[in-house]
């Protein structure tokens, strides 16, 4: 398999050298709180933009390559967002969850509808407001095979001050209108991640859900019917993050997960729609390799200690994994991030200690990642980890 051409995204003079060979870090934002990262073309110019977002009513969209910013109007207690064309007008819109003030009720989840002038109008998504849900992650996916975006919305149940709403699936039925799919009980799974994939190649998308408290779950979509196929999967507990990728270049989606006790698990798709995953193909015990605590360190922030990003760091066609950590050191810094190289994920490079732990990682393209060294309750920088032009390589 031929390695893809490397696209240099940012000017070398503005990109500080990274300890990852051949890479640099472009600072998107020097400091903000981040609940989720969205990478999407938000001004429809053909270039992916970056939207770090969370509780902050001053959240900004960073438009690449110019790095101009566009600010959203305030949304009360905003959490996770995703992008799709909701009214079939060719423009990218957003759907954002609302924490509803710890489930006590609020404005509900919102749609940010993009207008022709580039501005976004905040509207109510009929049928998917979920006003009493303690909203966390939102992801569009293809449930029924039609052109209308469908939704997965996860809710956080722990510590809710009222009876909490479970996570939910909404089918898109018209412009800005949804109906809830009652047949699938997600409980409160999916607080930490939602990853979609067509696991069996039939044109319908299923998904997996990560959660620290509720067992993680994986659903296959067979012709519009969601089937829970989690039971055969070993170690399907307490995933702090997971990412879909093609581990063996066979065009079937595989995935990697990491648990709160530090197990890095690569699962290879069997091609059997009834049981696509069981035992992990690769299993790496991170605390032993990286000399970190195993679990339940009281200094850890509640998000979780490990985050994952998939990219080809050395351009050898094998997917590599950036592991973001949130472990403090005795000198007041954090252990920073590590790149584990595929396909065996035994060899790794350290990117060095940093001032704040990594809370989120999102893919930008085949060779680049967006890394938020920040979380929903602590501030830090957001960087684009990207190949450096030769003159800027360390």
Explain what you see.
It is a single chain. The chain is mostly beta strands and 394 residues long. It is built from 2 helices and 29 strands. The chain has helices at 100-103, 286-290; strands spanning 16-17, 23-33, 36-40, 49-53, 60-63, 68-71, 78-84, 93-98, 110-114, 120-123, 135-141, 150-155, 168-174, 177-180, 193-197, 206-210, 217-222, 225-228, 239-245, 254-259, 263-267, 282-285, 306-311, 320-325, 337-340, 348-350, 360-365, 368-372, 379-387. It has a 5-stranded antiparallel beta sheet with strand order 1-2-29-28-27, with no helix packed on it. The chain has a 4-stranded antiparallel beta sheet with strand order 7-8-9-10, with no helix packed on it. Strand 16 and strand 17 (217-222) form a beta hairpin. The radius of gyration is 20 Å and the shape is globular.
Search tags:
single chain; 394 residues; mainly beta; five-stranded antiparallel beta sheet; four-stranded antiparallel beta sheet; 2 helices; 2% helix; 40% strand
Please state the CA-atom Rg, rounded to the nearest Å. 20 Å
Helix percent reads: under 10%
Low-confidence sequence ranges = 296-303
> How would a textbook summarize the main sheet?
5 strands, antiparallel
Q: Mean pLDDT, nearest integer?
A: 86
So what's the overall shape?
globular
Q: By helix and strand content, what is the structural category?
A: mainly beta
How many E-type strands?
Answer: 29
Spatial strand arrangement across the major sheet:
1-2-29-28-27
| Alpha carbon gap, first and last residue | 29 Å
What portion of residues belong to β-strands?
A: 35-45%
